[in-house]
Amino acid sequence: MSEEALIQLARTAMFLTLQLAGPMLLFGLIVGLVVSVLQAITQIQETSLSFIPKAIAVGIAFLVFMPWMIEKMTGFTRLLLGDFRAFLR
What we know:
Shape: elongated
Low-confidence stretches: none
Mean pLDDT: 89
Structural class: mainly alpha
Largest sheet: none
Radius of gyration: 19 Å
Strand content: under 5%
Number of strands: 0
Distance between the termini: 6 Å
Number of helices: 3
C-alpha cells in the first residue's frame, strides 16, 4: 500500500470519526449552554444540574442518530474489507 493511499485512509477515518461524534457533541454543547444561562439567571450553582441534562441530551442524540451512524460505519468497513488485499502488500 502506498503512502498516499495510507494517508487518504487515515484522513477518511478521522473525518468519519468527526462526523459520528459531531451530532452528539453539538447536542451536548447546546444543552450545556442553555443550562449555563439558566444557572446564571437563577444563581443556582449545582454541578449535577449541568451534567445530567447534557448526559440525557447526548443519549437521546445517540439514539436518534444511531441508524445513520451504523450506516456510515458499515460503509467504511465495507471500504476497508473490499480493498483488503492492498493492505497485505
